[in-house]
Model the fold of this input.
Amino acid sequence: MIKAVIFDLDGLLIDSEIISYKLYQELLKPYGYEFSINDYAENYSGKPAVVNMNAIIKRFNLSLNIETGLNKVKLMEKEFLADGVNLKAGAKELLEYLKTNQYKIAMASSSLKERALDILDKHHIQDYFDMFVFGYEVEKGKPNPDIFLKACEKLGESPEDCLVLEDSEAGIQAAYSANVPVICIPDMKKPNQTYEEMLVLSLDSLYDVISYLEKK
Done:
């Protein structure tokens, strides 16, 4: 029996992966490098910022350290986010359905707390959530299970009574390792077969989660 639903943020609840792609493009421009959106989707989408920054510095042999690179991207992202970031289709409708039907609602995201709450506030949806878990609260991030185990603990529910909604392979692995059933709503990249086998379902949009829950 599903008693609680745990949301990822980037690429699942908000349409932010395209912004991340543009940030890395801007970071590489002064060095004369660029890469395609397909390259981003295949190699960087859905991964923690620290992991991506480390990979990009090594791949392109950039003359900056991880901390400097992250600070540059953070400043650029503030400018992008000032123009707003869209919610994914069906986000508000699903949150309203969950609240009306008395599901507990959580968010488990590697995002910075201030950034995440600011985005939710701008869309007037923060109050739908009963609790949050952010990256700084756990020792190891996705694909390790820590963040979802922490979310279940905060919710006061066993993992098997929760449902995770994810878009990335790292998130799918984290939920599966935490023994929490997981549904994928892919963003830029569909999970490969290894991760598909970890899923309850793969759905086209957040609207479809409502249909799934109504059949339970």
